[in-house]
Amino acid sequence: MADLLGGQFGPIMDATKEIQDLCDQVKSDVENKTTKKYQEYKAVKYRNHFVARLVTGTIYLIKVHVGGDDYIHMFIFRYLNGGEVALRDVKDHQTIDSPLEPF
């Protein structure tokens, strides 16, 4: 996926309420993909990248704390102007120290 982005992600920032809202919108998709149910599910860090190609919107790379020492990283795409939100990929078995890099 990283090769398809056509640019660079911005700096790593602390997650905001808006980022948590994006994560909440795709939680069931994340649970289906990882085959796990998350009692704890809190966005902690993120990076984003604006894309203007075949589709226009913003890609978010987000680190989410899912309990104990466990984290997941996820790619979420939000179409331009606050449109549809879609989970593109998720990577589990991450830690607080795992680099938040495209995968």
Automatic annotation (TrEMBL):
Q: Where are the transmembrane segments?
A: none
One BP annotation, GO: cellular response to bacterial lipoprotein
Q: Which UniProt keywords apply?
A: Cytoplasm, Immunity, Protease inhibitor, Thiol protease inhibitor
Example GO molecular function term?
Answer: cysteine-type endopeptidase inhibitor activity
Q: Where in the cell is it found?
A: Cytoplasm
Q: Which residues form the signal peptide?
A: none
Among SUPFAM superfamilies, the record links this protein to: Cystatin/monellin
Gene3D superfamilies the UniProt entry points to: 3.10.450.10
Q: Which domain of life is it from?
A: Eukaryota
Gene Ontology cellular-component annotations: cytosol
Q: Where does the protein principally reside?
A: cytoplasm
Instruction: Report the residue ranges that make up the Cystatin domain in this protein.
Output: 7-81
UniProt xrefs under Pfam families: Cystatin
- Family designation: Belongs to the cystatin family.
Q: What is this protein called?
A: Cystatin-B
Natural source organism: Perca fluviatilis (European perch)
